[in-house]
Each structure stands twice: as structure tokens, then as C-alpha cells.
Records
---
Amino acid sequence: MSHGTLQNGATSNGTRIGQNATETVHLLFVGAPLLDISVKCDEETRRYYGLKSDDCILSRKEHDELFQQIFHNPESHLAAGGSAQNAARIAKWKLGPRGEVAFAGSTGCDDYETWMRSKLCADGVVPLYVKLPNDSTGLCACLLSEEGERSMIARQGAAALFLTEHLRTDLIRPYVGKSNCIFVEGYFIVHSPGVIFSFAEHRASSQIFSISLSAEYVCRSHCAALMKVIPKVDVLFGNEAEVRALAEAICKKDNLTVQECVKLIHCIQISEAVESRIFVVTRGSKPLIVAQGTEEHQTFTIDPVENVVDSVGCGDALAGAFLADYVTSRNISSAVKAGIEAATKILQVAGCDPPH
């Protein structure tokens, strides 16, 4: 692996990863924290707030009352969501007492932040929330009809306002310095690009730097920015649709096979800080693809899953568990197995709650 990694897990700064059972590893996840709220809702309420079936809208001022109502509704399902926050919670579940996992993001100063903070602590994750007093905590409300149709309302709020200077605060700086692995969700390319660029340029030589592609629109509309970051990335995650979107944005062609897309992206030049990039491509129930170095792409079979509830957070779970395993084992097959296991468990529950 990169970062001056020596034989048997020794790194250039003298730290040995995954060899001493008593050693604690440190992972830092950075992203937009969102309080996810799911609740059944009658048709009258949906009409009152102008909501349509199978639609997702950005919230307006009149939705604040709705957010409060469903937040306090005892029948609502609440979750500390957002891509990186999901991954952090799964990483801690995978590591257990062997590792410390922290999550950094920005929130408001409100009841939503208080609930998410308590949830992270309960899951064993260190909450590094930068609280912005003039903004509200990010939310995503999912209103379910009796027929199972969804109406979604999203409010990014403070979650989209995380800045590079927040990395230098007394709250977050120590965790940046001691982390063996840093993961940033790709959505930051859209609203907080300086944060990703800062990690890409200034992370320590002994640290693993990882990002996700996050969404098709990120890949299509922000291809140039991604092309500046990917050369400095050690572990890159994306699903098949995202990988195809980025490859088509790079070469201005469509109708590429997934293998061609993976090869095109994996051949992006790497910086001197990266010895051999790992590219993990999820494809739902189809075999997962891993590209590393100049070797042939590896594929890993996904066993059929019974009792599927929903796929929310499966990609996040895979990334979190993969990194948690890889930072200790430095073994790709072991990390993939851990990632698939975590994603399978999340498929069988509502949302992205770690198993207990």
C-alpha cells in the first residue's frame, strides 16, 4: 500500500498497523450529517405540504413544522444518516474495541443535533460536530403512504457548510493528525471541495486517504474536480452507475462496458504519495469488482440475500467495513469479505443501523 508502507505493516513514521493486537487504530470519517426520519403519513398530510409520491424535494420554510411533528412522533424511525456518518457507524461496529472511529461534520444548535450526537455516542463513534448557531441541522424526511410509496423532503442546512478551517479547530485537528485512515464522502466535491483538496494535498504519508464517488450527478457535473483528487486517493469507492457516469464524462462517450469504465478510471495517473490505488466497484447483486495496480481486476461473488428490507446505506456500510478491516489487515480479500458481510446485514434492516 502507499504512504511509505513497509513489510509486515510497518509505516514510514514507525507506526505498525494490524500487527499488535493491543494497538488501537484510528479512523476519521468526514461528511454531511443528516438526521433521517421515516414515518407513515396519510394522504391529507402529503397534499397539505404539496408532496408527491416517489418524489424528492428540497425543504421550504413551511416544512419546519412538519419536521418538528415527525421528529417528536413516537412512531417515527430516526437514524444518524448521511453517507460518511453511516460508514463511520458501521466501521466502529466492525472494529469494536480494536479501534477508535470519529466523524466530523457541521450541524445546527438544535434538538436534531442533540439526538444525532447521542446516537453516535451510543454506537461508539466520537462526534466531532462543528455547531453553526445560525443554521439548522441537515434533515431528510421520508413519508411513507399505506401503499409503501415514498415522498422525501431534504434540507442540507448546516451539513453543507463544513469548511477547510474547521479542520484546524481544536475539536478536529487532533483526530486529523492521529488517524490511520481518512474517508471523505464525494458529495463534498459539490459543496465543500476545499476540504477534500486539503486532505488530498496535506495528509500525512502514513495515512490512507479514501473517498466515494457518491452520486451520478457528482461524477457528471464535477468531473474536472474529481480528476484533480483521484490521483491522490488510495481507496476509491463507487457503484456501477457512478463509475459509468464518471467514465462517460471523462471520455465523452457512452455505451461503455463496466469493465471499460473501471479500466478507464483506474488508469488515471497516481501521485507520488500513492503507491497502488485500490478501486472498489459495487454492482448490487452482481459480482463486486476490485482493481489494484497493474493486476487483472478481481471479482467477488455476492451471495443471494434473504429477507431484504431495503438497500439504504448498503454502499456506505460496505465502505465503512472495508476500511475498518483493511486498516488492520492490509488484505484486500479480507476487507472485501468484511464489506460484503456488512452490506448484507444492512440489506436486512431498515436504514443503516449497525447490528447489535
---
Amino acid sequence: MTTESSPARRVIIAEDEALIRLDLKEMLQEEGYEVVAEASDGETAVRLAEEFRPDLCIFDVKMPVLDGITAAERVIEARIAPVLILTAFSQRELVERAAEAGVMNYLVKPFTKDKLVPAIEIAVSRHTQLTALEGEVADLASRLETRKIVDRAKGILQTAHGMSEPEAFRWIQKTSMDRRMTMKEVAEVVISGSSGVGTPAEGPAAAKAEKG
């Protein structure tokens, strides 16, 4: 979601069903996003992403010429933008394949605006977090592996200390800088249950204090 003080996120949508694509476009525009290009197949979607360099791509999983996950993988490998995948099925195999390709989030059809907007913002947030890991890990496969470890640690912090996902990530990031450790190393300590990196004793309050 965008605000009056922030520029609209630029989005490319790719969906082979014209009516769904139109509904999606209208939802995005109503929420303040700018749809800069549309595609009905995966190959065109990749070309448009290369041309427009959007803030986010939303791809349907099943499209002609090139499926959504393969198209997403190409966009992600080129470091163009995060990708949100639309699917009619929440199959485990599909979700795992999308995650391995670097997809930041997925959304099961049919969906409403109240599901779409959080899914977009989570995808963008995760992409920002993954980008922060680039200084630690050189290749995409290693970054994705590190992200899985960091995600596990975030989940532990969220459960144990009542943090939101961004708050947990900020705590890991700040702790890594304070202790001169990589975020992966901090995450591994959190997962192990060791007190070697300390704990955010005040939960969300501590994380918010660190932010401001």
C-alpha cells in the first residue's frame, strides 16, 4: 500500500485470463499501486520486467510460453524485482518450487484486496531483507539458504517475544552489526537456543526503540 508521502509502487502483472488480469489491475489501482505493464504469457512478462524495472511483479503460476515460476526465476536472477505468484492451488510442491526460485510470496485465487495488499507488502519486505543479505552471501542459492535460516530465527523471535516479522528482522540485523557477526550466524544462535547473542527482552518495545 502507498501513502500520500510515498511514491506509488510500480507493478507489472502477468495473467493469461483477461478478466482476472482486469480485476487485479483495478484492485491494485484502487489501493494506490501503479500498473506499468501487463502480459498474458511468461515470456512477455520477463521482457516487460527488463524494460520497465518495476518495484514488484505479480505472475500467475500457469501461463503459456513460459510458466510463472520460470518467468519469476529469470526476473529474480536478473535482480529486477521481487515476485508474487498467483495460484489456484496451495500445493506444497508448488510452494517449494516457487521458494527455490526465489519467489517472495504467493497468493491463492480467488482473492480479495484485504488478502492482496498484505501479500504484496510481505513480498516487498522479504525482498528488502534478502537484499540486505547480499553483502554476506554472493550467490542466489546461498542467499536463499541463508534466508531460510533467518526466517526460522524470525519465527522463534516472533513467538517468544511477540515481535512482528519486520521487528524480528531488524533485531537480527542490529545484533549482527553490534556483535560483528553475519545475520546467518546470529540466526543460527537464535535457533540453537543459546544466549550467545542476548535476547530482545522487551519484545516489540525493544525492537521499536532500536528502529527509532
